[in-house]
Amino acid sequence: MHYVILVSQTGQQTYDDSERHYTYPARYNAALAPLMAGEPTVVILYESRRAGNGRGLQAYIGWTVVTRPPEPTGHGLWVLTYDSPVVPLPRPVKQEEGGVVMEAWLGAFPLRERGVRQNGLSVRSVTDADAARIFAASGLLGLTPSAAWTVTDGEETQRRREALDRAVRDRSFRAQVLAAYRWRCAVTGWQAPVDLSGSLLDAAHLRSVASGGADHVHNGVALTPTVHRLLDSGLIRVTFEEGRWRTRHGPEFARLNLMGDGGSRLVIEDRAPLWLPPDPRLQPRPLQS
Prior knowledge:
Domain HNH nuclease: 185-236
Organism: Deinococcus xianganensis
Oligomer: single chain
Protein name: HNH nuclease domain-containing protein
CATH architecture of the largest domain: Roll
Shape: elongated
CATH class of the largest domain: Alpha Beta
Pfam families: HNH_2
InterPro entries: HNH_nuc
């Protein structure tokens, strides 16, 4: 996994960026060489002071994953298209918090010099340790940024790198699937408040990773935990039939009592179409056997 910072100056630059893509001058392609060679890349978006008519947060604000190499658009510009829209970090993170500098290379310079040192580095690679500090400070990893993630030699370095990559992949899949489905269960249609969706909705794989499924939004579906458990147990299935994604009852489904004591009922109809992401580009793709 490769990590890059993209500096957003929305509204203040001749090229543009959005929640779906980032346009930049060709000179920055060196920082994206691993992506061009086929390595998945995690983008961390940094909002500069110049964004929003000079009211930018000067903080890391969001992230996403890119698996497609950038493409030229003409006039010396290239465009990086995200796999899914940028997901906001749980909270914005400053470049230095509590005495911890998120990008280690900046710590070599006095605070007054850091802005100048970043000129010409609107697209820059960062280490996995830098990315871990940013994610930890935002609350995404459940760690403190000073709880190490300090790069060391040998097996410990590799173990931490693998742990970070797995955590990023898991959280990326979850965040992108829930955002694609607009925080709505694909089976019941129940929609969670965005700020509570992380605990009230699950991102399920249509094909498990163990069976060769990818941690990609096209292999995901948003479900309430109860429906997720029904799917995992085989009591219901999700199938692609007659050009539509549908729920199907499993052999043991009829034995369930989905009626609550107060008269409420969880209704899961056989062959009912799923509620899918409004954006066709984010909808699941039929599974290949």
